[in-house]
Every structure is written in C-alpha cells, then in structure tokens.
Write the structure tokens for this entry.
Amino acid sequence: KSGVSAITLREDDELVSVCLVKDEPMILLTKGGMGIKINSMEVGATSRTTIGVKGITMKEDDEVVVAIPVRHDTDQLAIFTSLGLAKKFKSDELPIQKKAGKGLICYKPTTTSGTVASAVLVSDEDNLLICGDKSGICISATEIPSLSRSSLGNQVIKGSNLLSVSKV
C-alpha cells in the first residue's frame, strides 16, 4: 500500500525477471524454448507506470521465463528444464535481433525433458546452485554439457521439479 508503483501489469501478466542493464545485449528465453538476443539500447526509457515494450513475439501458450544481460561475450547460455535436464552453448550462437522478433529455437521441450524452467550465463569458473521441489545440488558449470541449440541435454537433478538456478 505504501510502496511506489514500478510497472503496470495487465490481467494474467506477471513479473518474472528484473535485472540492471547498461548498454549491453539481453537474452529473453521462453518456456517453449525460444530465445532472442536484443540490444538493450533498443528498449527506450518509459515512465514507471507504463506496461513497457515487447521484447519477443511468442506463441499464445508460451511465456518468458528469464531475461539475462550479456555482460561477457565469452559466457555460455546454460538452460535448465522443469524435469532437471541441462545443457549450455555459446551465447554468440544467438545473433542480436530487433526487439519483438520471434527469436531462435534454443531448446525443444518434450514430455520427457520438460519445458525450459531457467537459464543463466556461465563461465567455466562458475558454480551453480540448482534447487528443485524435493532436492538441491551445487555443481560446477564445467559439469553442464556443451551441446547444440537443438539438443536435449543431460540430467543434472533427479526426482524434483526444478524451481531455481543461481550462481554461487
């Protein structure tokens, strides 16, 4: 009640990610596996209470799960599914596109792999905390396989629905 409004959300919309950016590309990734890299300079400043601008054009049943600023061109995009699979690929495999584009396929969800639940940009020195609804695990980024954008990935956490991934 006493807070300051930062954004206006439409009915059935929700805020999934907040990050600070400064003149750097951003990757938006959807649960359906589509990803787009846009130039953050393309997103003009608006007032606090506006809805914002469209970053990616999605299918009707899709939704954005993460927005990540690209701070280092050498980082890899590590993608994690709801059923505990993971893979990574070079972030430069996603070319910079205009905002509101459809993006490129970064993951092809199946009933056995699950939908995209989270993603982070990693380098080999990073460690990740992966939390599921029943268990959690801390792994090195080197343990995530480097695969193509169309591959499924390997199991990194078992018996849990993935809830979050963060660098530690």
User: Anything to note?
Assistant: DSSP finds no helices and twelve strands in the chain. The chain has a mean pLDDT of 93. Residues 23 and 41 are 6 Å apart (CA to CA).
